Amino acid sequence: MAAHAHESNTKRIWIVFGILSVITLVEVYLGIIKPEALHLHGPGTSWLNWIFIILTLAKAYGIAWVFMHLEGEKKWFRRSIVWTAVFLIIYLVTLLLIEGDYLYDTLAPLVKW
Amino acid sequence: MEANIAVPTNKKDTWNGGSVKPFGASYGKMMMWFFIVSDALTFSGFLAAYGLTRFKFIDSWPIADEVFTHVPFVHGDYPMIYVAIMTFILIFSSVTMVLAVDAGHQMKKNKVAWYMFATIIGGIIFVGSQAWEWGTFIKGTYGAVKTTDGKVLQFVKDGKQIALADFVTGERTDVREQHTRKNGLWFQSEGTISTYSVDQVVNAYKANPAIQVRTELIDLDKKQKTILSREEGAAQLAKTKMVIEGANLKVNEYGNTIFADFFFFITGFHGFHVLSGIIINIIIFFNVILGTYERRGHYEMVEKVGLYWHFVDLVWVFVFTFFYLV
């Protein structure tokens, strides 16, 4: 609530909204046409999925930094929020996905199709 | 040290930590952020569990494009269009929210009120859309059958999925009727029974050589569900236990039941957040109109509900990706 408090950021807000919308449109477009080169190949999962994940993180960054105004908070307040969440989420997701993969390897051979 | 001691500087401020402001953030704003962090971890827990389950059933998971294909008032197959519209509505309501916060910084009461109002409307449209999405999912699209070993078999014609109603003919042959209090035991009732009996579906399949059976198994080279030959299909159909129409917590015509469970749980939990957000927004909206924040001298409450509202949007961005896109 310091120096930035009284100036209007309206223009910036609309620009960020434009960017978020364009990203969403690109995601939906790719999701509908599913280009084969991206959909059927890629490291770990498909290239398409990686594109979706990266675009999602870009959107999350836009929302958190501009809309939620993290950019204007004190550096270590911001870090106490972002680092905590990011670390714990990456930790949890990594473990659970590895476990899920293991479950597939173990149980899938037992399923008859 | 001072942060630990209740110094009676300004009596009004004592309840929210006195005049001490660690990191330059007010007590309320900081706690809203820390609540958001913990809530974000809850949502990550759900989404990570979804990820685990999906990895566990990676070769049979329903393909979202084939599940969410409806748009209200429009007939036909439009994968993802409606969810995309919902996403826009939510992002747009986030924009009006941030504009309200911005107007609050400039102490423009009317502008804050109007932007809050727009945000509330956006939220209501979103929750309504989600309810519609649930309704469509529960009602189902095509119908399928479930085998004794728990597999869901769907029906295709010329490679495209076809509804039971489009090829099953005649009357139920098993003389099965819906058990109600009127025609049965007055103290018992049963859930809805399927429109068609198992025999009816199997016979319709045998009678129509154009129909093929599609299993849940994904052909990993093409990322499409496997379509069985007529003979294989008949062999699978011989194991049919029940006809399923729609999805609920116990059966799911689109495939794995747990897909439906996660869908209801995650979008439901998110929808509940949106609902609470709308209610909190309405309260703040009335406070704005009544001039509460004008008298208080600042619109920080708008900023705090704004944080919550953006968080709900943020979560949706991830739900959208992991439920509908990936």
From TrEMBL, chain A:
It is a multi-pass membrane protein. GO terms for cellular component: plasma membrane. It is found in: Cell membrane. Pfam families: COX4_pro (PF03626). InterPro entries: Cyt_c_oxidase_su4_prok (IPR005171). This is Cytochrome C oxidase subunit IV. It comes from the Bacteria. The keyword Cell membrane applies. Keywords: Cell membrane, Membrane, Transmembrane, Transmembrane helix. The chain crosses the membrane at residues 12-32, 47-68, 80-98. Its main location: membrane. It comes from Polaribacter aestuariivivens.
TrEMBL record, chain B:
It comes from Polaribacter aestuariivivens. SUPFAM superfamilies: Cytochrome c oxidase subunit III-like. It is found in: Cell membrane. Its main location: membrane. One of its GO terms (biological process) is aerobic electron transport chain. Residues 1-326 form the Heme-copper oxidase subunit III family profile domain. It comes from the Bacteria. This is Cytochrome oxidase subunit III. It is a multi-pass membrane protein. Belongs to the cytochrome c oxidase subunit 3 family. InterPro entries: Cyt_c/ubiquinol_Oxase_su3, Cyt_c_oxidase-like_su3, Cyt_c_oxidase_su3-like_sf, Cyt_c_oxidase_su3_a-hlx. GO terms for molecular function: cytochrome-c oxidase activity. Keywords: Cell membrane, Membrane, Transmembrane, Transmembrane helix. The chain crosses the membrane at residues 31-52, 80-100, 112-132, 272-293, 305-325. GO terms for cellular component: plasma membrane.
